[in-house]
């Protein structure tokens, strides 16, 4: 098994951990060494991730049994990785954190949005924000990566070229349609099927914390976006779509929008601009992205109002979490960026 | 059968017609005389509306067999009622039209949005717009009522008190989550289950025609709203939720918003302000409104952005169509306004 | 408020309790006095049952505050009503129990299937099994009624006329398609939306406890049915469909089947035989029964195998639970049997 | 591009054709040459199969432009391939037919079940039935393969070891839970979302034509199965689950069942026996099989009735159609059998 790096997953029984495992098990340059779970210690990972049956005979280990590895993926609940990070950096040469603790570079902004003190603030600037499309060269050189929140990922990718090219005003409204897997693996009344099925639930009309990341990443050349998110949970397990309502600057045309996306994303393997004249799938649609690492982006100018509508979709567990992490790993280790992330998506589904 | 009015339905095989029939069959003051359908002439209405089994033995008649009645409900595809209206006014003392042809009072605005010539423009000002909460006294006296579009109904009811009390700026973004019954009874590739199930389809990011009605109804005291709708179809058969993003005027508080709703809707039997601190259903939710004539309205101030989010939900086939029509009928004939519209809604569902 | 009986609900925060409340609030002969919930004591019932907003200002009371009433509905978890029943019979003139404790008349059969001792076995024969279609005259005279399990209700109603007329062999396979509300209001991993949505889960391939009730009720004139249930949970919140595979006796024709249903159910207000040559809804379909008290029954002879397929559907929370209970109440008190149970069902939904 | 075979798809705009394309585009030994569609001639395949964006620049060609190729996949509506087959055998060295025309070896049986005359009966015995698990060695040598129907595939795989080992009686009841993609790509009222969503539709209580294939394949050593299928359409786009109710022979234990499956399927890459004591996915579940070529099989003995319940699930478009076809191709050409069929499936989904 030459040339394989040893990789472990801290917190492998959740949805992000399971998705990481699914992707890493098919990666030709990776050996998955250990997967931890306090709750399922000693049980086969397939008890929790039944799709991996016949693919792996790994069992969960207790987190205290974690051994040294080349790369450690941390998939812990928010607030835990900042507690453990000082021990973890002795365990692994590189760390990719999928949680929220190291996404924001500024301690006080973190504390304002997350309403808790940051335990390891000196590391905040050591972590690179994990979206390769924006930070590829830094990720390549970094030891620590903090993957973006799923809602932030799709919003940033949708808006970045427009802001880079100075095409829109600062007031940005993001109307997000969310799926149930985003809330994680723990059952609550809110996720109880009779309540959650068929729901169109305005669970966070204002105040979504991913706004902080979006503001951080889209504050470019003095532009400071005013990000207002409204999040509505719909009857979907996996997937995320944002409808961004923005005001184009004076005289901006659809052609300018096209050019900005083309200029920034021309060579990106995982970005597709979807704006079709025919067919059913004229705009981005999360259902056909399930299992893929794509971010599909489309847009339409409102000919009556001074408004530009940008639509973008991802699989929250792949491009929004585990796929993004593996993409960053591929960049960090110089593997081809699409390795293990080539799944096409299904249609119909 | 004293005191019953004779009522007929022109175009009874669609979803609006079926819903009308369901409601009217339980109305103590109504005798349903005839229900027309060209396609299903001679067949029992229960072949098309199987929920009405054991409730009615009516069969569809061909439209040319329509006889005189007290009240005629017209549930034809857009563009047809303006063709037939001159004959219909000889058939019925009163007419309630569920289509789009007579909602707009201005011929040129109709033609601009609907891209067709209006055949009976002289009647445009004879029809009263059918939302009782705004036009109760005119509906009481009128012979002709044009029911509002479902998307317009919920948006107008959500915004009217705020505009009446001068609380918001004119730029209004309406992000609508739509169900499949809104597209009617005819199968298309777009409504084909493998394509439509699980969809989060941006089928109309801009340009929704209901904007015209909303502008007409919310242009009050010189205020002219700038209405921008984005419509996303989600995996829902029945129901409609709008998330309205507006800018409150300076110094407006949540208390002012509360007061405006209370002042306008205090005595309305079908409006509920839903803004709870606990429970799962803290904001309006269309799934528990199925079959009801309620319009639930909630709101939240965005403490970071200068934004007010208003959320409103209805059953598009009831308050958005057939229930609205029966409510108008009740007002026209002096019946108690809630008659036959008392269904509570189900939970869980 | 002349002629109204006072009714209370013990255990009113679950789905059965909520459905009872919905139905009873519109019953002209009933005054809902008290609704208990230990967990939600002091809170409005509408916090838990949001569909009842604007219909009731009742709050939950603690169970120890239950006062005397005419009729008590008991909607407690299985195993609890047999514990409390001796106190409850002092509180209410009549009791209708929605749980499993008093459905079986035989102590040892109860203990065999429920794997627990029965605390109040002397009352087992005092309770009448609550299906009015089979036990109307006994229910009329009884003080205690035990409503049938939902799966038992639909299976018994589907099979009873065939057995009464001696048309089928004893081996009966019931393939049941179940909804999530049947599992109650408590969230578990099994009901967690990401796991439960889209599921086709063989959660009980054999061993379903409702078999005991079905055997009890269908053991007629020496016939002892061999009931084998397989239960599959599908992505449905409310509703229940059984596909019963049975062997007709020699020379039995579809006409004989028709006759047996007609003879037994001719005057039943809530039974519909659904077997159509055209339309989409040729056989029973639970989705259009949501909220109704109907049991729809259809059948088809297999021309190649010696098999008769019987299909039956109900709303598990109405005809399968709360509606059945109110129907029994109507019979007990001599009210018109359909009172408060007249909802038609929605289409489309 | 050494060593690649040229492959074309006749009838590439349907769901089977799209799924074939998805799988073949990632096959290292295959060059997809042409994909036909009369309706979409000249348009990019991605207009119809949007999941393939950025993966292929192929356009549909008219069927008359089909050129010679090594292997032709035929994905035409039932009844068409028998019409065209004589011309097609001049176009391609090998043919894999995904339709029903050449599955049955006996002309009169075909005509009895399909109610039409067979045009090319002399070829019926030239086609090998395409389930590799039963016919691997014949497929290896054959020029013509007829893939099994999806419902037949899962039923045959579930039952074959039991019959081979003489463990069950001949009377077999198959209760199938079906998805909407099985009905193909053409919209009808039956597939119209408002009607099809949430449905539990007994669309074929008896008479399913796949019974003929199942009887053919399971008639072993004088055993003639009596196959009775009931098919219920549920709210699922992709996937198929069968619950088979059979009678075990005297003294058969769960251990015998285990052994028979192990003996027959020990080395099969796509069969998994799923019968777990813990976890949520204790039995086969189609939702986690979406996109995979697995057939998962489980079982449970009924301790009260003399009944064995076998549960099996597949993705109808993969193992039930396109994946099965590619598996057969891999066998025919000596490629590793799992090539291009390695997708794991997603969880949650």
Automatic annotation (TrEMBL), chains A, B, C, D:
Stored CDD domains: AGPR_1_C_LysY, AGPR_1_N_LysY
Record bears the keyword ATP-binding: no
Superkingdom of the source species: Bacteria
One Pfam family it belongs to: Semialdhyde_dhC_1
Keyword NADP attributed: yes
Parts of the chain that traverse the membrane: none
Biological process annotations from GO: L-arginine biosynthetic process; lysine biosynthetic process
GO molecular function: N-acetyl-gamma-glutamyl-phosphate reductase activity; NAD binding; NADP+ binding
Gene3D superfamilies: Dihydrodipicolinate Reductase, domain 2 (3.30.360.10), NAD(P)-binding Rossmann-like Domain (3.40.50.720)
Alphabetical list of SMART domains matching this protein: Semialdhyde_dh
InterPro entries with a match to the protein in the record: AGPR (IPR050085), AGPR_dimerisation_dom (IPR058924), AGPR_type-1 (IPR000706), LysY (IPR037535), NAD(P)-bd_dom_sf (IPR036291), Semialdehyde_DH_NAD-bd (IPR000534)
Key words of the record: Amino-acid biosynthesis, Cytoplasm, Lysine biosynthesis, NADP, Oxidoreductase
Annotated protein name in UniProt: N-acetyl-gamma-glutamyl-phosphate reductase
UniProt source species: Candidatus Roizmanbacteria bacterium RIFCSPLOWO2_02_FULL_36_11
């Amino acid at each position: 098994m030459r040339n394989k790096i040893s990789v472990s997953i801290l917190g492998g029984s959740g949805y992000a951990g399971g998705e990481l495992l699914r992707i890493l098990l098919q990666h030709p340059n990776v050996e998955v060494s250990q997967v931890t779970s306090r709750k399922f210690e000693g049980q086969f990972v397939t008890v929790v991730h039944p799709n991996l049956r016949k693919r792996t005979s790994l069992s969960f280990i207790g987190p205290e049994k974690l051994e040294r590895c080349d790369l450690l993926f941390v998939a812990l609940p928010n607030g835990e990785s900042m507690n453990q990070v000082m021990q973890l950096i002795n365990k692994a040469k590189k760390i990719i954190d999928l949680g929220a603790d190291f996404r924001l570079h500024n301690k006080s902004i973190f504390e304002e949005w997350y309403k808790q003190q940051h335990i390891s603030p000196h590391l905040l600037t050591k972590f690179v924000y994990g979206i390769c499309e924006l930070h590829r060269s830094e990720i390549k050189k970094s030891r620590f990566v903090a993957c973006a929140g799923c809602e932030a990922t799709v919003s940033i990718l949708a808006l970045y070229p427009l802001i880079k090219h100075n095409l829109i005003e600062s007031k940005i409204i993001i109307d997000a349609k969310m799926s149930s897997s985003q809330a994680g693996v723990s059952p609550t009344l809110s996720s109880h099927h009779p309540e959650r099925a068929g729901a169109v639930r305005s669970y966070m009309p204002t105040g979504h914390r991913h706004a902080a990341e979006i503001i951080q990443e889209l504050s470019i050349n003095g532009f400071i976006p005013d990000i207002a998110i409204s999040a509505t949970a719909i009857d979907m397990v996996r997937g995320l779509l944002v409808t961004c309502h923005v005001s184009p600057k004076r005289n901006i045309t659809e052609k300018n929008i096209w050019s900005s996306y083309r200029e920034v994303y021309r060579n990106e393997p995982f970005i597709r601009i979807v704006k079709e004249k025919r067919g059913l799938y004229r705009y981005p649609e999360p259902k056909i992205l399930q299992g893929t690492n794509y971010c599909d982006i489309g847009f339409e100018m409102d000919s009556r109002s001074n408004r530009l509508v940008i639509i973008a979709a991802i699989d929250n567990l792949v491009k929004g979490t585990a796929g993004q992490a593996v993409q960053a790993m591929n960049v960090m280790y110089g593997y081809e960026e699409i390795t293990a992330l080539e799944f096409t998506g299904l249609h119909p589904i």
